[in-house]
Design goal:
This protein has two domains: 249 residues, Aldehyde Dehydrogenase, Chain A, domain 1 (3-Layer(aba) Sandwich); 174 residues, 3-Layer(aba) Sandwich (Aldehyde Dehydrogenase, Chain A, domain 2), CATH 3.40.309. Helices cover 41% and strands 22% of the residues. It contains 15 helices and 20 strands. The strands form five sheets. A seven-stranded mixed β-sheet has the order 12-13-14-11-10-16-17, with helices on both faces. The chain has a six-stranded mixed β-sheet with strand order 7-6-5-8-9-19, with helices on both faces. Strands 3-4-20 form a three-stranded antiparallel β-sheet. The longest helix is centred in the first third of the chain and has 20 residues. The protein starts with a strand and ends in a 6-residue tail after the last strand. The mean pLDDT is 95.
Amino acid sequence: MTITSYNPADPTDLVVAVEEPGAEAVRAAVGRARAAQGGRLAAGAGARSAALGRIAEAVEAHAEELAALIVREVGKPLAEARGEVARTAAIWRYYAQAPYEPSGAVHETAAGPGLLLTRRRPYGVAGLIAPWNFPLAIPSWKAAPALAVGNTAVLKPAPEATACALRLAELAGLPADVFTVLPGGAEEGQALVDAADVVSFTGSTGVGRAVVRAATGRGVPVQAELGGLNAALVLPDADIDLAAGHLAAAIAGYAGQKCTATSRVIAVGAAYQPLREALVKSLAAVDDSVCGPVVNAAARERLVLAVDSAVEAGATVLTGGRVPERAGWYVEPTLLTDVPAEHPLAGEEFFGPIALLHAAADLDEAIALANDTPHSLATSVHTRSLDAALAVADRLDAGMIRVNAPSSGVDFHLPFGGTKGASHGEREQGRAALEFYTVSRTISVLPGGDA
């Protein structure tokens, strides 16, 4: 079969078409990567550091080309695409320093002479499965730490991001079989999970759970990022206009196609009416430079049907809810209220520019609403009170909490992940990633006796 990737803003524009390699090709690629891994580790920290630094330089040198490719292949607005390219370069440069970090520690023995050492070593081949919404940044924040500590890597990108992944591998310029990109679908993804020595996955909840079961069944370390149903709490003392601007960006930025996007807005007490008016105004002002199209026709249809069924169930559309009369897979930024609790929009991640507005009588009710989700990834809190912000942050279940900022921001040098069903395994990014891609070994060194 053929993998095809089309421009979401112009569905007649075929970006790339490649043949699916099949499961056997994946297994062969993992075998070659495993054979190459020993030499890569033996080359030393200096070689790995220099290679990652060169990738950062290559990304920066081709920044405008890469940004244009992101816009064309996944429909990301140009400003966000440029930001992703800059972040991608920064990720590779950050991890270029990692090979020089301490890989263990020396300990005293409990009794007698000798040394006790702990040392972290790479697993071998990292199997990486990445989504389409950050087609350069997510593959990079998976591959860079894996390579930095001495693994080799095989990446299977989402079909919709095939061209971006292939171009990243070209620019990386690493020796054969050190960093391999294999486009494909479910068959190739399953084969990679079945063959790799350590697995990192980002994608849908259903597929992610299957990946976790398969990897853990083999005894292979696995991390999985499965999205979020993220809330924003707006307290009565908040700067309402500022909060509305942050929320509009988190709801509609890149058409809501981020696992950290805001999909539930919870207004506390007297904040409800002014926030409702300000947020409707902010969302209505969002244009293509911020929102853009959703990734394909199936995604748009799912979003439209969800809004229509919510309205039939008693919900009210405060703004948006329509498909513009134009080419491309566009959906208007949409805000709904009175969505029944049992409706899928209230409990599932829809990955689009849609949010629900809730009223909470007090802070306790707002926190309970925010925590009432199986996918606690990111939550934002909007208030002028530091005391309130700290108190709320202590009671929220989310893995990432942002105060007076959109829920959709990410710091690549800090741990990334959620709680409950949003994540499985160790955190991504930052130093946490270096630990995930390595295993700790304890080494005892005792005297060998008299010569």
